[in-house]
Amino acid sequence: MASDEQLLLPIIDSHIHLYPSSEIDNLAWAKPDHPLYGQKSIEQYKEATKSTPSLLGFVFVETDRKHDLESGAADGSGWDGPLREVRWLRRIALGEPKDGEGHTADDKKLCLGIVPWAPLPSGPAALEKYLAKVEEEAGDAWPKVKGFRYLLQDKPNGTMLEQNFIDSLKLLGRRGFVFEVGVDQHRRGRKQLDELIELVDRVHDGVPENEKVKLIINHLCKPDFSIYNLTTDPSFNAWRTTIYALGKVPQVYMKLSGGFSEMPEALRAQDASHIFQSTFGWLGVVLATFGAKRIMFGSDWPVCTVGMPEGEAWPRWKEVVDKMCWMASLDDEERAMIFGGTAKEAYGL
């Protein structure tokens, strides 16, 4: 790698969310008193990342639009919300903004990949119909659709192990799409981690290598960063055991993202050095098990800004990841993988 490239490490932010003010009531979670209520635009994102001129762009991940699985599978009507989001991303990806949406035609170069919602519990037949609708709505932006997410963190136990869900994941693998895995150990406990390990086993069992779906784990599985004594804490040990198991599967990737949401307020208020020291027990396990080639930097903007001083969240999380790389004595090639190369490979950007 040339020396000028070493100084300007290209960065791909593998996990951000965007939504226009005109579609706020289409978000399942958005209430007027929610800290993230209101438009979140590329204009705001560029302001948040202005300290990093080497940012190449981002991967957009769905924002939990209102939907209904039953009517979606019956006649497609329950998919209106997520498909509206696809149309919004098409405007970004093709540089066709509407007035007031907070992005320009030139901003299309920042949108490197799109990960919409998908109705995986409805089974592969319904999913096939849905993918056709996404392709139709995305139009010329369809090549930027790299995978799909169905958020599992708030769903009933057993959702991800239903046969329809497994078969839908196998379909994504055959079609060359990744699946974004959003589970939450912090609030849901060990059960979701145990189910995730079983999911990985079942979804790859008997599947040809070239059709095995890539699974990209969001936010480190959302561990509890308030734990103090890692050596004896059963929650940390359960998380570590899961990470070791997942790390053995070549098709599983991990995002270094979402950390601030799992920290107590007092820790979020600290500088990057203190945050790194407090989270190194987790970050070290991920780095040791997945290695730089299956780890990717992600900011989780704008979620990362909640409870953080204005303008500080994005650069502070980047600095935490920088410190992990430095502490582990990673070379420039390994750092380049974490900050962009892994996302490029996993998503096929």
In short:
By secondary structure, the chain is of the alpha/beta class. Helix content is 42%, strand content 10%. It has helices at 3-7, 42-48, 69-75, 80-93, 124-138, 163-175, 185-188, 190-204, 234-247, 265-268, 272-290, 313-327, 332-347, and strands at 11-16, 55-61, 111-115, 147-149, 178-181, 215-217, 252-256, 295-297.
Q: How would you characterize the overall build of this protein?
A:
The protein contains 13 helices and 8 strands. The chain has helices at residues 3-7, 42-48, 69-75, 80-93, 124-138, 163-175, 185-188, 190-204, 234-247, 265-268, 272-290, 313-327, 332-347, and strands at residues 11-16, 55-61, 111-115, 147-149, 178-181, 215-217, 252-256, 295-297. The longest helix has 19 residues, at 272-290. The two termini are 20 Å apart. Residues 1-6 have low confidence and may be disordered.
The computed structural class is: alpha/beta
- Spans of 5+ residues with little confidence (pLDDT < 50)? 1-6
How far apart the termini lie comes to 20 Å
The strand order across the widest sheet is 4-5-6-7-8
Estimated share of beta-strand residues: 5-15%
State the shape.
Answer: globular
Helix percentage: 40-55%
Question: What is the CA-based Rg, rounded?
Answer: 19 Å
* Strand count: 8
Top keywords for this entry?
single chain; 349 residues; alpha/beta; five-stranded parallel sheet; disordered N terminus
Helices and strands in order:
Elements: H1 3-7, E1 11-16, H2 42-48, E2 55-61, H3 69-75, H4 80-93, E3 111-115, H5 124-138, E4 147-149, H6 163-175, E5 178-181, H7 185-188, H8 190-204, E6 215-217, H9 234-247, E7 252-256, H10 265-268, H11 272-290, E8 295-297, H12 313-327, H13 332-347
Parallel strand pairs: 1-2, 2-3, 4-5, 5-6, 6-7, 7-8
